[in-house]
Amino acid sequence: MGWGDKKTFCSGLATCLFFATPVWAATPPTAPLITLVQGFYAPYLDDKDQDKVPAATDVIAPHATKQLQALIHKDEACEIREQGVCNLDMDPIIDGQDWDLNGKAPVVSVLQQNATSITLAARFTSDGTATGVAYKFTLENGAWRLADLSRIGGAPADAWDLVAMLSAPE
Questions:
Q1: How confident is the model at residue 3 (pLDDT cuts 50, 70, 90)?
Q2: I need a labelling partner for 154 at 20 to 30 A (CA). Which of 7, 51, 125, 126 fits?
Q3: Is 15 inside a domain boundary?
C-alpha cells in the first residue's frame, strides 16, 4: 500500500467515524436507566417491615412523564377524596401487594430501544413466583422519563398496564 492509498484509507476511515458518531450519540443511556430501575427495588430488599417501604407512586413520580405524573396525582386526589383505594390497588414495582424477594435484586435488562424510547425488564422472584415488570422510558423535553409500567408474562387475565389502570374511570 503506497502513501496515497494510506492517505485515502485514513481519510475514508475518518469520514466514516465522523458520520457514525451521531448514531452512537442517539443511543439511549441504558446504564443510568438500569441503575435507576435497580434502585426502585432497594427498599424491598432491605426492609422486612413492609410498612416502611415508600409508596410506589412516590418512587415513580419524580422520574415520570408529565402524563404519568398527572395520572398519579389524580389517583392520589381520589384516594384522599374517597378515603380509600381508587384505581391503583397494588404495588406496580413488585407486581402485587405483598412480597418476599429473599434479598435478591431483580435482573434488569433491555427489552427494546430506539432513539426516543427504551423498555427495560426487571425480572425477579417474589413469594416463590417468578414475575417481571416492564419499564417504558421515553424522551421528554430532552430527558429520559418513565412513561409506563406493565407486567411481563403471566396469564393474560393477570396482565396490567399502569397508565391504563390510572386512566380508568374512578
A1: very low
A2: 51
A3: no
Residue type, 32: P
Q: What is the CATH number of the domain that holds 42?
A: 3.10.450.50
**Residue with C-alpha cell 503506497?**
2
Cβ burial, residue 68 (10 Å; 0-12/13-18/19+): buried
Q: What is the pLDDT of residue 22?
A: 38
Residue that the C-alpha cell 417501604 belongs to: 53
Closest C-alpha to 100, from 152, 151, 47, 56: 47
The DSSP annotation for 33-78 comes to: HHHHHHHHTHHHHH-SSGGGSPPHHHHHGGGB-HHHHHHHHHHHHH
